[in-house]
Write a structure and sequence with these properties.
Layout: E1 24-28, E2 31-37, E3 41-49, E4 60-63, E5 66-68, E6 71-77, E7 84-91, E8 93-94, E9 99-100, E10 115-116, E11 153-155, E12 178-181, H1 183-187, H2 201-204, H3 207-216, E13 220-223, E14 227-229, H4 233-237, E15 248-254, H5 264-280, E16 284-289, H6 306-314, H7 338-353, E17 359-362, H8 381-388, E18 396-399, E19 419-421, H9 423-433, H10 450-456, H11 460-463, E20 473-475, H12 485-488, H13 524-542, E21 547-551, H14 582-600, E22 623-626, E23 643-648, E24 658-663, E25 669-672, E26 681-687, E27 698-700, E28 704-707, E29 711-718
Parallel strand pairs: 12-13, 12-21, 13-16, 16-17, 17-18, 18-19, 19-20, 20-21
Antiparallel strand pairs: 1-2, 2-6, 3-4, 3-7, 5-6, 7-11, 8-9, 10-11, 14-15, 22-23, 23-24, 24-29, 25-28, 26-27, 26-29
Helix pairs in contact: 7-8, 9-10, 13-14
Length: about 725
Amino acid sequence: MTPLTSAAAAPALRIPRDLPPAPGVTVVEGGVEVSVYAGHAESVEFCLFEPGDVAGTTERRIPLVDHAFGWWFGFVPDVGLGQRYGFRVGGEWDPEQGLRHNPAQLLMDPYARAIEGEVRFGPSVFGHVVDDASWEGDGFARSDSDSAPDMPRSVVVDQSFDWGGDAPPEVTRSETVIYETHVRNLTMELAGVPEELRGTYAGMAHPATIAYLTSLGITAVELLPIHSFASEPFLVQKGLANHWGYNTLGFFAPHAPYAAAKDPQGVLDEFKGMVKLLHAAGLEVLLDVVYNHTAEASGTGATLSFRGLDNRAYYRLDERGRDIDVTGTGNTLDLRHPVMCRLALDSLRYWVQECHVDGFRFDLAVALGRGRTDEFDPDHPFLVGLRTDPVLSRTKLIVEPWDVGMHGWRTGQFPPPFSEWNDRFRDSVRDFWLADHRPGVPGQAPHGVQDLATRLAGSRDLFGTRDRGPTASVNFVAAHDGFTLADLTAYNEKHNEDNGEDNNDGSNGNRSWNHGVEGPTEDAQVNELRRRSMRNLLGTLLLSSGIPMVNAGDELGRSQGGNNNPYNQDNTTTWFDWDLAPWQEDLLATTRHLTAIRREHPALRQRTWAEGKEVHEDGSIDLAWYAADGSPMQDWSAPGQRTLQMLVNGAWLGHESVLVVLHGGLDEQAVSLPEAPGLSAYRLLWDSTWERPADGEVTRAGTDVTFAPLSMRAYAVTDPT
């Protein structure tokens, strides 16, 4: 199309200043200040559209004249709130040098606070020539096809909001219990939520949803990505869509389809309203964020924003201009570059200061810390920025400590104050309760209890340096990525056929055990043992030192039919089914009971390391380990050792001490409750053989009790009278 020519299309007014204004579009008196980074460009145009103009027939292009340090900027009069806009960038096209400027492409503002519409994938949104049917091309021939009719619009929105008396709950890390959930999955079929609000930010903040969340005893909701995102082209061609959201389009804009509101301003206000209401209920809001890659994929992917603005600045490229991919998505954002590093930090500050979120979980965080030599650097500028920023350093910062590049596993190697997803906890707990009992695995030998004990006590082998403490470990047994808790006990193999990748996607190393039958069964004995295994996994998670993270729906025994990678399943595979069977009601009651035990017994929530040292004149120590016969544990590494007793001393800090006993054998086991200084009896708090929580009896120290196969218990030290 031909851009309109009018007085309004004149160049932006020059600004008598030495430095460019704040990135993005800022409303000022009489118009807006515009600033965008395009460090290798020869021209940048600010493109305006009328609301509702999908075809782009009202486009007005305003050249940005001023530029300094790679930033193009200007004042544009008579533009204000509600304006739809984008950018077009001209310059050299030389893919082997990493230069992919193409003024035919309408580009999203990386700093846009709202995005309207979705990418309509087809040949036009690729900056290079592609086949009309397959959308494939070599990435070298520049396309002249105008992408405006198929691109979303960035939107100028009002940042003001009535926060009232909103204040962050500021839950300490030692008190934190995280609930990892998806905005849509939790509420799509929740009867108490009005149909028009289900699957939305408003639905997440509905009283019925909040009542459920607070009843669980969790302290924080960790939301799968809510940054504006796009589906991958190969999914679109299969009639599928990205459901999880790990494919970011805009780092400042909430994903519009998750809102009940239909206008861009309403979307932002609805998100803020959700945070406000969750805070009022005492719940923190953590965001799962993806600063390691974008929706543009590799050099043969679409040109939507960053690639067209400055491919060489925003992405990691090799000497031939090709993307370096340590994320498995085709591209990796280059946080070594000051502009990209600043963008990520600006984005995070925006969500804290303007949207009041309480922290973040960083997807594939090793990719964010790869330095000039491509090796992980704990002192990478981005990580230092997070640690030293007076706003961000006070929030909860959680990393996924791996990526898919060389030497990508870095659990325990991030500096304070980061907490880390602890995959060693996940694997050790699954091995002890599940994988060790799965027959037919070549070379498999049952694990002993030594590694399990290390995980129960906070994984000091991983997080013991730099005075990090047990809360550096975010413990989990299941997450969005992988089998649900119920599926861990019901499937030996993944069943991902519905994903459209011939069951080749998703992990093959699940450490699961189907208890003898693959999938659903009417066998009462198998189902009983599966339910006990679920309770064992939940009990180990919630009674261990560290920050526990519950995978949403696991408290209900939710199944995904053996699909361990439902990233493109926005349907009943991932939506919660709230029509609960009696056993699911029991499991929910068990989860609530376990979070209450954790909340009521600070001994389970250590902030500093227990060291097995004497803490009282009576000879009691802060953390003690015992074998099944009640004697101090000696034979840690024996493969046949399947019983472990952990006594956590709280008395020296004015709290009840707690004894956790785990028996991972397939036969009954006589266990002698340990005799130790300062204690004489134990009150049973919970037994994993209980289908539903009950009142426990008091047992004197030194008494032999019988543990059922594959079972665990929690006791509080008490007075026998």
